[in-house]
Amino acid sequence: MSKMTIKTEGDTHVVVTRRFAASPEAVYRAHTEPSLIQKWLLGPDGWTMPVCINEPRPGGKIRYEWSNGKGGGFSLTGEYLELVPFSRIVHVERMHVPDPTPDNHVETRFEPDGAGTLMTMRMTLPDAETRAAMLATGMEHGMEASYVRLETMI
Amino acid sequence: MPKLDAAFAALADPTRRAILARLALGEATVMELAEPFEMTQPAISHHLKVLEGAGLIGRRVDGTKRPCRLAPAGVDAIDQWLAMLRDALAKNYDRLDAVLAAMKPAGRKDMP
């Protein structure tokens, strides 16, 4: 099944697309309401998001804190720049691992697609090196599982 | 199958993974690699030696420079990481599918 695509574009972009069997309004709400976000934006199995602050208005704050339940964790902070309910969100975000990473500028679009929604998330990093480092950092959270997979590969 | 232990040890370090990700963009010199990581050239050289020993990168001689590039095993490792990232994202969105299904008002059966 290939409902999702992820690709790099140019030197500084990463573009993710995904189709959902729900209205743009529902998908938009699931991206902006903390009680909904905490149910899905979790990454690998076993991780939870004990802190979820989301103020969906221009200048509003974003703060997500994840925990693996074993003392490990990291956080993400950001600010909203622009919101068009229920079709477009523009925000900046950075990870704290624990030092803050350079700002990632993210535009997320929700477009009607048949009876569902096509989401397109376009990330823009300051430069190619930052993008490479971000991809490497994002990969880190799956490292345990990746070791297992690497064994079958190398 | 050679160098498996060395490859695991090399990949355990976040800076070395970031160096590999940078080399995925193309060949680079030690100086070019040191800059974004805010590390000294000797520190980067050490990491490169580990990566080279593990068979993840190769280096060629170009005058006084020895530019680095990904070796086939390094390319595979990068592909594997991208697959990992894709898996983590895909897992999130599969969970979101379930959240969206639960949000739907009762009686609406028009969604696929």
Round the Cα radius of gyration of chain A to an integer and report it. Answer: 16 Å
Oligomer: heterodimer
Shape of chain B: elongated
* SSE succession of chain B: HHHHEEH
Q: What's the order of the H and E elements of chain A?
A: EEHHEEEEEEHH
Characterize the largest beta sheet of chain A: strand count, sense, and whether it forms a barrel.
8 strands, antiparallel
Measured by DSSP, the beta-strand proportion of chain A falls in: 35-45%
Report strand order across the widest sheet of chain B: 1-2
Number of strands of chain A: 8
Walk me through this protein's architecture:
- Chain A has helices at 24-32, 34-40, 128-140, 143-153; strands spanning 4-9, 13-20, 48-54, 61-67, 73-84, 88-96, 104-113, 116-124.
- With 154 residues, chain A is α+β, with helices and mostly antiparallel strands.
- Chain A has an 8-stranded antiparallel β-sheet with strand order 1-2-8-7-6-5-4-3.
- In chain B, a hairpin with an 8-residue loop joins β1 and β2 (68-70).
- Chains A and B meet through β2, α1, α2, α3 and α4 of A and α1, α2, α3 and α5 of B.
What would a concise description of this structure say?
With 154 residues, chain A is an alpha+beta fold.
SSE layout and pairing:
The complex is a heterodimer of chains A (154) and B (112).
Chain A: E1 4-9, E2 13-20, H1 24-32, H2 34-40, E3 48-54, E4 61-67, E5 73-84, E6 88-96, E7 104-113, E8 116-124, H3 128-140, H4 143-153
Chain B: H1 4-11, H2 14-23, H3 30-37, H4 41-53, E1 57-59, E2 68-70, H5 72-103
Antiparallel strand pairs in B: 1-2
Helix pairs in contact in B: 1-4, 3-4
List keywords for this structure.
heterodimer, A: alpha+beta, B: mainly alpha, two-stranded antiparallel ribbon, 5% strand, disordered C terminus
